[in-house]
């Protein structure tokens, strides 16, 4: 590192707040546009974003319970259960007994589900290889990931389950 260059200083809180808001806005736009682009492909019909998320988790981490998936995805159990039910109805996932908890089945991906998610991930990877025109550096992507992880950590305490209504 060039010692004649001063180290960058952290942003003051007021400016940091505005800059992080810009990042949130960009993330929302990126998410919506990215999904629209992926949905334009006709290779895989009928895989919703929610079902895709369930299949990705099962593909990457193996069998999980619905509450475990909900925690990882930061979504309500009810929503993840609906997406899991959809995946099971299509034959992409199945419930198996859970030796650790009788009332919470383990959900695992089926061979057909593996085929579907492998095709989706390959399509996404091909699209992602075009990001930045091949000009992005490892350092830039690491810095981006670090910032996003810090933003996510800020909201670690947010409860994702809906509160129980009073009786």
Describe this structure in words.
The protein is mainly alpha-helical. Helices cover 57% and strands 5% of the residues. The chain has six helices and two strands. The chain has a two-stranded antiparallel sheet. Helix 2 crosses helix 5 and helix 3 packs across helix 4. The longest helix is centred in the N-terminal third of the chain and has 27 residues. It starts with 12 loop residues before the first helix and ends in a 13-residue tail after the last helix.
How is the secondary structure organized here?
Blueprint: H1 13-39, H2 49-61, H3 66-73, H4 77-89, E1 93-96, E2 106-109, H5 111-128, H6 138-154
Antiparallel strand pairs: 1-2
Overall pLDDT: 84
What share of the residues does DSSP label as strand, in percent?
Answer: under 5%
Distance between the termini: 63 Å
Structural class: mainly alpha
Strand order of the largest sheet: 1-2
How helix-rich are the residues, as a percent range? 55-70%
Q: Tell the overall outline.
A: globular
Number of β-strand runs: 2
Order of helices and strands: HHHHEEHH
